[in-house]
UniProtKB/TrEMBL annotation:
Highest taxon in the source lineage: Eukaryota
Alphabetical UniProt keywords: Coiled coil, Cytoplasm, Cytoskeleton
Source organism: Parambassis ranga
Region entry Disordered, spans: 59-88, 353-373
One cellular component term from this protein's GO annotations in UniProt: cytoskeleton
Known function: Activator of KIF1B plus-end-directed microtubule motor activity. Required for organization of axonal microtubules, and axonal outgrowth and maintenance during peripheral and central nervous system development.
Localization, UniProt: Cytoplasm, Cytoskeleton
Name of the protein in question: KIF-binding protein
InterPro entries with a match to the protein in the record: KBP, TPR-like_helical_dom_sf
Biased segments, Basic and acidic residues type: 64-76, 353-371
Family statement drawn from the similarity comment of this UniProt entry: Belongs to the KIF-binding protein family.
Coiled coil: 298-351
GO biological process: central nervous system projection neuron axonogenesis; microtubule cytoskeleton organization; neuron projection maintenance
Name of the coding gene: kifbp
Keyword Acetylation: no
Length: 637
């Protein structure tokens, strides 16, 4: 075998350039009935390159690492403990034989990716493992470290796609170890794989080499985040996702809207863990970075192409989705604060409130400084914008009405933004979910409000936004949503009823309530009972038959609804004894249902322990009250 001449080498480089162009550019225009046409052409060129490289004869004393590669079977990935050996054993990547092995490995790599892209996974795996085999004897060097990492990244993706998550984890963690060790021991901008087949005048700059190498490692971090998520290691997955986002900004390797959505999605993990500072930072960064996507000027709307119109629509949708993530942030921080501050009857514990206010000031401010330094996104151009947005909403749990209201107003602003895109006409489910979140914001704020009348007005706002929707929704297509709305409306009327009675009792005892107050109380009581009953009726068969067995997802709501209906009927204020007797009988009937259902289905008792205990008590007491009322009625007759 003879050495390659300069003309033969230039021909190889031209073939490689053509293969890259076919893969990255021409393939986008392939017809639907032949979607891989360009990639098949690229594959043939890569095979030709491989054969030409194989014809190159190694110098004296050099090992031919590429012999009979096409016939070799895939080998197992080296275990993690072997990673360090690659930095000290074998021959250098820049020796003639080592460089030849790297070039052959690169062709195997590109063939592997080509087969994977054309959905020939087994062939793709074989080529990628051939690449790993060729590199086994090479120490990691600036000439081949990029190929080491790219090859393992691709194998990680391939095995993850087969749901072999632990196998994928091994390849990707090895890639991570190689990168970290290389940066520690060398760190110079390494050769990019494309440079194996580039003539001298077309070599990359150090800056471009660094950018491409760092992008490969960013992909490693991204894929590891997915792997850890699939393995249930959510904290580790979040850390890798956060680091991926930081690196994408640092090296300017991101699509603004995609980055923003990923950051907003990560915020939802932090929120569920009560890490509101991190959640707020992710959302602030998402909002700022999404602004980099830009908009088409309105005056150009008439001339814009269909593609640009679609892009505008996608931008609007993604920004609305980020707004929804902000809503969840505001809602969750208010709800967590409510849980922390409520007493055993769900009211504000003022002693606990004062205690928390005293304790949090210095301690949480110091903690914030320490945690914040490790999580920052952005560059000099965006730091100030992100920080400015963060200042508009607190990340500490609100402890009084003023703080809660500031969070509520931010949430309400994002509700308006989200509804502009997710309108009822076209996005029914999304629109209603946003309204439900808006209602929940009002409910959380009401907890902090000391003025009972103002609390009532907040709950009235909830009814005004949900009741028309509930009435208009098609019961056949939106049954589950209507059930949610009916239950929430019933609870909201119930809360208003309790608040009205509390307000009235501050002024006079129940027996002395004026007719207006009694009428208002009974209206709220009846409205609550009506919606609870509507919920229960929705569980019945088309013939109106009550189900003998309640499904798990509606078991507790159904039994609670029965208990509440019983309680509401017993609380109605009736001047006529006959109406009072009717209400008490309906109350007893529903209390009995709760008791009897739990007796027939013992597993249900654990779902409604408190309600069941009170129902049993009322089943014993109500008959006595009913009998006394009947006796009085007979005596009066």
């Amino acid at each position: 075998m003879a050495s390659l001449s300069s003309e033969e080498w230039r021909a190889i480089c031209d073939k490689f350039t053509n293969a890259q162009n076919l893969t990255d550019v021409e393939s986008r225009n392939d017809p639907e009935n032949d979607p891989f046409r360009s990639k098949y052409k690229a594959r043939e060129l890569l095979r030709e390159i491989y054969c030409l490289l194989k014809s190159f004869e190694p110098g004296e004393g050099e090992e031919d690492r590429g012999a009979d590669i096409s016939e070799q079977r895939p080998t197992e990935e080296p275990v993690d403990g072997q990673t360090e050996d690659w930095f000290s054993r074998g021959f250098s990547g820049d020796s003639p034989a080592g460089l030849r092995a790297a070039k052959l490995g690169a062709v195997e790599y590109y063939l592997g990716v080509n087969h994977v892209d054309t959905e020939e996974l087994s062939a793709g795996q074989e080529h990628l493992m051939n690449c790993m085999k060729l590199l086994e004897g090479c120490r990691v060097s600036p000439e081949n470290v990029s190929l080491f990492i790219h090859g393992r990244n691709q194998l990680g993706i391939l095995w993850a796609g087969r749901d072999e998550t632990e196998t994928a984890q091994g390849f990707l963690e090895t890639a991570e170890s190689i990168y970290q060790r290389y940066m520690k021991e060398d760190g110079s901008p390494p050769t990019d794989m494309t440079e194996y087949f580039t003539t001298g005048e077309n070599q990359l700059t150090h800056q471009e080499r660094t950018k491409r190498f760092e992008l490969a490692y960013t992909h490693t971090m991204y894929y590891l985040a997915q792997v850890y998520k699939n393995l249930g290691e959510t904290e580790r997955a979040a850390t890798y996702c956060h680091n991926t986002l930081q690196r994408q900004l640092r090296f300017n390797q991101f699509s603004p809207m995609e980055w923003a959505l990923n950051a907003a999605t990560l915020s939802q993990y932090y929120i569920t863990k009560g890490r509101y500072m991190e959640g707020r930072h992710c959302l602030s960064a998402a909002t700022v970075i999404s602004g980099l996507a830009g908009e088409i000027p309105s005056e150009a709307a008439a001339q814009e192409s269909e593609t640009e119109s679609e892009r505008r629509e996608q931008l609007r949708q993604k920004r609305a989705e980020i707004a929804r993530c902000w809503i969840k942030y505001c809602l969750n921080i208010l709800q967590d604060s409510k849980k922390l501050l409520e007493d055993n009857i769900g009211e504000l514990d003022t002693d606990r409130q004062d205690e928390l206010k005293r304790a949090r000031r210095q301690e949480e401010e110091e903690e914030e400084k320490g945690r914040k330094s490790a999580m920052l996104f952005g560059s000099e151009d965006t730091f100030d914008s992100i920080a400015s947005l963060e200042e508009k909403v607190m990340c500490l749990l609100p402890l009084d009405f003023t703080e809660a209201r500031s969070v509520f107003l931010v949430g309400q602003n994002y509700v308006t933004q989200a509804k502009e895109y997710f309108q009822m006409d076209g996005y029914v489910t999304d629109h209603i979910e946003i309204l439900q979140d808006h209602s929940a914001l009002f409910r959380s704020l009401a907890f902090f409000e000391e003025d009972v009348e103002r609390r009532c007005k907040m709950h009235k706002r909830r009814i005004d936004m949900l009741e028309p929707i509930c009435k208009d929704l098609n019961a056949q297509y939106y049954l589950m949503i209507r059930r949610q709305l009916m239950f929430e409306l019933a609870e909201t009327y119930n809360e208003m009823m309790d608040l009205k009675l509390t307000l009235a009792n501050r002024q006079a005892d129940t027996q002395s309530l004026d007719n207006h107050t009694i009428k208002k109380f009974n209206h709220l009581c009846s409205a609550s009972a009506k919606y609870f009953q509507m919920f229960l009726d929705s569980l019945c068969s088309p013939e109106g038959k009550v189900p003998e067995h309640l499904e798990q997802e509606v078991l507790r709501p159904a039994l609670v609804a029965r208990f509440r209906v019983a309680r509401l009927h017993s609380r109605l204020i009736n001047s006529a004894p006959s109406a009072q007797l009717d209400s008490l009988n309906k109350s007893l009937e529903n209390y009995k249902y709760v008791v009897q259902y739990c007796e027939a289905h013992p597993e249900a008792a654990a779902e409604v322990e408190t309600e069941l205990e009170l129902s049993k008590e009322m089943v014993g007491l109500l008959p006595l009250k009913i009998n006394r009322l009947k006796a009085r009625m007979e005596a009066n007759n």
